[in-house]
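HUMAN: Forgive my ignorance: could you write out one protein's sequence and backbone structure tokens?

ASSISTANT:
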Amino acid sequence: MKFAAKLILIVAGFTAVSACSTLSDMDPFDGGAPDYAAGAPVNLALSGADRDALAAAFTAAMGSGESRAWRGSRATGVVEPMGYALGNLKGDPAARIDAARGDFDLAHTVETEMGLYVLTRNSNIRLGPGTDARAAEVLSSGTGVDVVGRVSDKNWMLVAADNVIRGYVFGDLLIKAPGSELELAGGPMRRPVLCRKFRQRINIYSERAEWEGAACNDGDGWRIAAPPAPDENAPEDLLEF
């Protein structure tokens, strides 16, 4: 059976809110068992055994980074994990920022939406906010970065370059980008949440569904994430599977 899925390119705006959000704000299915077939047109046709098999494959795929096939009583399917992202860093809690990897230290609350900065020297970008954390890469002096979070109790910044979160850099190695020194910056305090994109395929009887989505894990397991609010000014593509 064919169905249409909208893939929307999103450029999210920066909106300050007063409260710290949780994963439940991003999960429209919160309150019950995770529904790993959420959004699929064949969802209601799945049996309990199908859902159990899908859940086992889904969590294994998200954790290992490897595709997992599954077979239930009526349906079969494949879960294909894709790239990482971090959620809970913008005004829309469901908005996500692509991340270079999935092993950042996310145990710290950060002040979000700090704005554009420039590195004043070649800088180690680390997996956590401290010199004891492993360096993931080095960014060159003069590189512009978007500070998506300032650690609340340490002088360390969570930074993105080229719209991808790269890691933490010591705050003394950054200055506000020229022309932005007088801009107001700083949003609500939040704890970043690890998310991962996925592609799924389910075959049940003569029907086949394929779709993409994202799941997030705040420490209590993977759950399907709500889609970000659409940007009315963003381009839109329709793909038919």
